[in-house]
Amino acid sequence: MALPVTRRRERLIPAQWSAFPEFEELYDRMGRLLETAFGEPAATPMTWTPLADVSEDDTSYIVEVEVPGMSKDDIDIQVNGNEMIISGHIEKEEKEGVRAHRRMRRYGQFEYRTLLPGDIETEGVRAKLDNGVLTVTAPKSAEDQPRRVSIES
Fold first, then answer.
1. Per-domain boundaries in the chain
2. Which CATH class is domain 44-93+106-139?
């Protein structure tokens, strides 16, 4: 004997509910979990890590970090041995009478830490901020730079 099919007339999900905040929270939590498991963990739970690239040429290491909307006074760069720490704070701008529907940009305290593959000359480290990209150039120490070896006969 088959039971009659009835339809529910009430909604299980409220009409004003949106999935986007739920997905954004889940995305942030998964990102923090993956950073802790596979990357370099952030200094504090509320600190986030900006996108960055690390490369090198024959004479130096180059670190490029995305910091849109920041000025040079808002960024702190520290070098200790071959570790580089770039940190700062991005303020969230609240506008009167404006409701946010989606927030994708990150705000608050950020920190990027990296260990460079070799020793550097800390006195020669230079930084440049251009179009929201911070470029830090750290010259390699004399011992880490390639040199030509002559062959004796």
1. 44-93+106-139
2. mainly beta
End-to-end CA distance of the chain: 100
Contacts of 113 (CB under 8 A, 6+ apart): 40, 43, 83, 84, 85, 86
Beta bridge partners of 85: 78, 113
Give the closest residue to 125 by CA, choosing from 79, 58, 73, 76: 79
Taking a C-beta distance cutoff of 8 angstroms, is the pair 92, 117 a contact? no
CA distances for 61 relative to 55, 118, 129, angstroms: 6, 9, 16
Report residues of the chain scoring pLDDT below 50: 42
How far, in Å, CA of 113 to CA of 84, rounded? 6
pTM given for the model: 0.64
Cβ-count burial 118-136 (b if 16+ within 10 Å, e if not): eebeeeebeeebeeeebeb
H-helix segments, the chain: 19-38
pLDDT digits (tens, 9 = 90+) for 79-101: 998 899 999 998 877 788 888 77
Q: What per-residue confidence (pLDDT) applies to 18?
A: 67
How many whole angstroms separate alpha carbon 124 and alpha carbon 131? 23
